[in-house]
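Researcher: Final request for today, and then I'll write up notes for the group meeting. The sequence and the SMILES for glutathione follow.
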Amino acid sequence: MTKIQLTCFAQSGNAYKAALMLNLCGADWDAKFVDFFNGESKTPEYLELNEMGEVPALIDGEKSLSQSGVILKYLSKKFNKFDAKTEDEELEILRWLLWDNHKLTGYVAALRYLLQFAKTGETDVTQFLRARIKPCLKILNNHLENNAFAIGDEPTIADISMCGYLFWPDEFGVSWADYPAIASWLDRIKALDGWVHPYELMPGHPLKD
Ligand SMILES: N[C@@H](CCC(=O)N[C@@H](CS)C(=O)NCC(=O)O)C(=O)O
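Model: Predicted protein-glutathione complex:
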């Protein structure tokens, strides 16, 4: 059987969602490094794999998938792990996945990119993004004050998606001391068998100048 391949690079929180899932499921997989910062994800070869020009993409035999949420869903079915147990849970997972992609990851990833990689310093744009992030983190923190994980007591792909960028708080200027329920939840995720920090799990860290 061919190994699962995941296109990724160490700085990608979206790729980390899929990479972490593969590790937590004990999958046999290879990281396929994409030189994102030098434009590899926009080359004709890469666009043939993913017309959206985004990382990650997952290749499992004949199957080729993109969008971390879709990849997480696929892997949860394949390995029968971190999946919904009921139809209501299925909908709850979808709710958090959509919110994460649009709001939480959407704003956090953009802010981190500007500060950490484009090195813009503080601008009107970073201030706008910071103002968008704060209520998102508050919403998540409030939810986690009453729930060990996104959907009750067990981790699901909703948690694996939402934590994608959150192991780099210093890179987008947030302290988890301000969001203690998120801090405890991240500790619970870290304690899962197979957890590895994104910079260790995927190739390409540190970035070369
Ligand atoms: N919603 C997508 C987002 C993927 C994404 O934006 N990946 C970044 C790298 S972390 C990317 O490839 N960006 C290129 C672009 O936006 O054109 C997912 O969850 O997979």
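Model: Residues 82 and 157 are 5 Å apart (CA to CA). The radius of gyration is 17 Å.
Researcher: Thanks, that's everything.
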